Amino acid sequence: MVRTVPKGTYSAPAIEKTFEIIELLAERPDGALVSEMAGELGRSVGELFRIVIVLERLGYLRKSARTDRYTVTYKLLDIAFRATPAQDLTRAALPEMQRLARETGQSCHFVVPNGGSGLVLAREEQPGMRGFSLKVGSRVDMIRSCSGQVILAFSTSQRADAIIEAAQAVATAEFDPSQLLDHLATIRKRGFDSRQSPITYGVTDISCPVFGFDGAVVGALTIPFLELIDGSQKVGLDEARTRLDEAVARISEALGHSAVSHAEPPSA
Q: What is the pTM of this model?
């Protein structure tokens, strides 16, 4: 029986399977056997075997000589950095993030929008023995997180609406659109956001926007400020926010942003 394909729709089964494999392994840091991939993807071993072998030969997957499990290699990350603005962003952000971590004694991370989620593109851990940080590659809730709301607050209405729509498609909880827009307006007015972490006691998230040469927001730099019980943190919350604001100004300048020209607030 010949399968009919809707007009204007193209099918490339091998490519679809390739990205199914990569996306599956992205969630499996310990890797997976071909049989396990087949079981989770609802496909036969025969469907995936040749694709896995080719991906390994091309350097995108690595097979463990000890467990026979396949994992994704850094080649994908290398291509992603070279094919997107990520390299320029990290080149501009990392020196300032290192300086910020030294000055404040706090970790920081740089978040960019990625569809309906935020993506931790870079992080810098605090230099001391204690700290809190997110892993590079972590997904961030664009609607509820400090970083996500800062990005939304300084995006154009069209871009913010698109991000919110995409975020709703993967959201696990409802939210109040009018309340969100009110909060975004507040963030935009004061130029940053600061709030108690919704997941970690003793952590206050502080986030500021980073702008590109065209005045558009490209991401948010965030300090998950860890307040120690004995008060031995290097600087206080207010001083950390001042240093963060200075850091994002320098990063934005390195990206070619030369004027205070914020995007219009998102519309309802």
A: 0.68
